[in-house]
Amino acid sequence: MRSLRATLATHSKIVVDLVFPPLCLICGKRMQDEAYLCKNCLDGFVLRENPVDKFSISGEVYITTTWALFDFDANFQSLIHHLKYSRKRKPIIRTLDYYESQIMDLILHPTYDYVVPVPLHPRKQRERGYNQTQVVCEWFAPRMKAQLGGHLVVRTTYTRSQTKLNALEREKNVQKAFKYSGKAELAGASILIIDDVLTTGATSNALAHELLNNGAGGVDLITLSSPA
Description:
CATH class of the largest domain: Alpha Beta
Order of helices and strands: HHEHHHEHHEEHEEHE
Number of strands: 7
Strand content: 15-25%
Structural class: alpha/beta
Shape: globular
Number of helices: 9
Helix content: 25-40%
Largest sheet: 5 strands, parallel
């Protein structure tokens, strides 16, 4: 019976897609053999060739190497907005899959002990429904031969949105916002932080500082994009 239901569901989807072809999330174009994003929009994303060379913060930078993968143009900004606020995970995963070989060549196939999402405060996670950076971590972790490290650090402060803050305000906003959970030994661990957008780097830098203060051997950062 289950097999019959699955077959009927598959055929129903085929019929619906033929009558009402899915639309590209970015441009709204009708698609036939594509999923979530059309090839034209996928090809339009610009993958950055070099690591980020500086942060816009006043103090010490605790992250060794940072990659902001894609240009923060209007289309990619829309993609992140859908990931962050509409819980649409599959379009960003399709994008990462599409550019996988280039991404891995860009970051030189390093391996890490843990891949860590920038944690949300529990209140904010309840409001949003999920942590969008966890989705990206789950894509990177097996490719880095790393464990997921979402349990390593908690966000103890409900910080106001960074969107309209200047660089100094962003730094103050995230000071002491993170706390090591003590749920795993960090001595000498190599850690990759994952975030969605790099603006000043204040949030990821504060997280890296907490990890290093509790024994991590080194911290790198990958973000999906950066307006800088």
